[in-house]
Amino acid sequence: MPQPRSSNNRRRGWRRLTLWLAAIAIAWLIVLPAVARTHAVREAIERNDSLGVNPTAKFYSELPGMPRVNHRIESIVEQNHQAFWHVSSERKR
Question: Model-level pTM?
Answer without folding.
Answer: 0.47
